[in-house]
Design a protein that fits this description.
Length: 137
């Protein structure tokens, strides 16, 4: 199975530039109506303009722009260096929601909001000693 996670964005070019900087990778597809980033062999991050999904589904859904002030999704990426990814996100225009911190589930995670209000979480698994410390308190 291959999963495509599609974020509806207000400006495809702005979001493509943002995610290229944050992921430190160019899109694997960048055509009018869709940009894609290969996250792994089985997962793709897609960026679709809000107008594109409205053309596809029309009146069957509420226009995504009406929910822009509320987080609509979370992209939780487990990476080797969460701090570096988070820093690139902030430098590229994301708004920090929570700085990098060791969480009770054993990941060091930093949270931010992308330009469209989607939550970005960059996580790095903590070492075994930190996990033991968290669960014993």
């Amino acid at each position: 199975m291959k999963a495509h996670f599609i974020l509806y964005v207000s400006d495809q070019q702005r979001s493509t530039t943002f995610y290229s900087a944050v992921l430190a990778e160019p899109p694997t597809l960048n055509v009018p109506g869709m940009s894609e980033f290969t996250l792994s062999d089985s997962s793709i991050l897609g960026l679709m303009p809000e107008s594109g999904i409205m053309k596809l589904l029309g009146k069957a859904i509420i226009h995504p722009s009406l929910a822009r002030s509320a987080p609509r999704s979370e992209l939780y990426l487990i990476v080797d260096n969460a701090a570096a990814f988070h820093a690139r996100a902030i430098e590229s225009g994301a708004r920090e929601v929570s700085p990098l911190a060791l969480r009770e589930w054993g990941h060091s995670v930093a949270y931010s909001l992308d330009p469209d209000g989607h939550v970005l979480a960059f996580a790095t698994p903590a070492d075994a000693a930190h996990k033991m410390e968290i669960w014993s308190t």
